[in-house]
Amino acid sequence: MNEVRCPGLPASWINGWLAAVGATVLDPRIRLRWTEGDTVAMLCASDVDPALALIESWPERSLLAELPIAEQWHGHGRLRRQVSIEDFQERVSAARTHQYSWTLSSTMTDLSVDEKGQVMHAPFDPAGPGTMKWLHHRLLKVWAKAAVTEERISQSLAGRGGRVADSGLGFDQTRLGSLADRPGISALVDPIVEVLAFFGLALLPVRGRGIDRRLDRRRDQGTIQRGWRRLPDANFRCFYWPAWQQNLDRDGIDALLDAWVPGKRAASARLGIHAAWRSIGYERRASADPTTAYGSERL
Question: FRET pair for 237, CA 20 to 30 Å: which of 167, 171, 173, 298?
C-alpha cells in the first residue's frame, strides 16, 4: 500500500475529519485510517500515490456546476436558501438515480418543514454570509480559489497549504479571525480542505421527524443528520465523530458509522475506534451575529 501521513488533516479538526472522509468519496481507490496518539489521517491506495489519485479525481467546475443542488438544474424546480416543498420534491424525483443525488439528501429534507413552510436544512448546510446563502454557491466560490496541483494538494495534506480569504463551507471554526486581525479579512480557509470536506457530506444523510413547525413549535424538532445527537438534559445537538485504526474505504466508513455508538467504549474498541470527539458550537459575539462554526471536544 502507498500511504501518505496527513498532519494537515487531524481527526480533532472537524474539517480535517470531513476532508479525509471526502477523499475516500472522491476517489474509490483511497482508504483511510487514523494514527494513534496524534490522530492524523493516513490516506492509502494500493496502486497509486494518494495525492496523485486526488489530482486525477479532482472535480472540474463543469461537474460541480451540474450537481443536483444547483440553483437551476435542467428545469426541475429552483433551489435557493429558502426551498419550497414542491421545488425540493420535483428536484429529488428528477435526481433520484444521479451519481451525486447525495448532495440533496445530505443537505435538505422535506420530512421537516420550517415556520415558513420551507424544507429544513441540515446542520452541515448553514446559511452563508452576504449573497452566498446556500451551499452550492459557497462550494463553487471556494473551488475557484483552490488552484490545484499535486504539490498544492501535498502541502494541504501536510498542513502547509496556504489559506485564502473566504468563508468556505461555513463549518470550520479556525477560519475565524480575532478583532485584532487585519481589517477586511474576516475569514481564511484552505480551499483544498474545503472542497474535500464537501464530499465528506456524502456519508452524512439528513432526515426529519415528519413535523411541520408551523403546527409544532417545540425546540429540537428539526432535521436529524447522521452523527448529530442531543446532549443529555440539553435542547441542542452536537456532532460526534470517531477515529479508527483499520484501512477503510467509503463503504467501510459508512458501515462503521452505522455500528458506532458514542460512549460505548468496549464496543468502540471492537470496531477499531481509538478516539472520538463532539462538536462545540461557536459562541456568537452579538445576538445578530449570523456566524456558524464548530470546534471540537475530545470524548
Answer: 167
